[in-house]
Specification:
This protein is α+β, with helices and mostly antiparallel strands. It has three helices and six strands; from the N terminus they run αβαββαβββ. Strands 1-2-3-6-5-4 form a six-stranded antiparallel β-sheet.
Length: 146
């Protein structure tokens, strides 16, 4: 009789141990929701673009579970921004054009539906460009599914 009464207590205790282990475990990316560093070529390719020539100080990540979100943050020559974007996204609005009025704290931005864009696996791309000085631009790029 005591064994029968002890069984539910042992099951609950075992369940608590498993839950505690799962919460405290530092296993890499068991559920896919952790931010993980990735090569920047991978991050931009997800949105159908390539890293620009001369880019530096790059940091790129991915977070994925139901949706996938790649982020890239890098610096590049300011003079090359327009050419790089025109090659990657010829359908992007020009600086100051329709769709760029909501740029707050950046010099140029746009959001673009890239479904059907060659090579893109993402549905949407966001690009924010800040001109750091006369030679350098900082680009914050994200490509994601929704």
């Amino acid at each position: 009789m005591a064994a029968i009464l002890a069984l539910p207590v042992l099951l609950v205790a075992g369940l608590l141990v498993l839950v505690g282990f799962g919460v405290l475990s530092d296993d890499e990316d068991t559920d896919g929701t952790r931010l993980k560093e990735v090569p920047c070529a991978e991050a931009l390719a997800f949105g159908g673009a390539r890293m620009p020539e001369g880019a530096g100080d790059a940091k790129c990540t991915v977070q994925s579970w139901l949706d996938t979100n790649y982020q890239a943050d890098f610096r590049m020559p300011r003079a090359d921004v327009s050419t790089w974007l025109a090659d990657a996204y010829p359908e992007a609005p020009p600086p100051g054009g329709p769709g760029t009025q909501a740029c707050h704290g950046v010099d140029y931005c746009f959001q673009l539906d890239v479904t059907g864009h060659p090579g893109a696996q993402a549905y949407v791309v966001n690009v924010n460009v800040t001109y750091v000085n006369a030679e350098t631009a900082r680009v914050r790029y994200s490509a994601f599914t929704t």
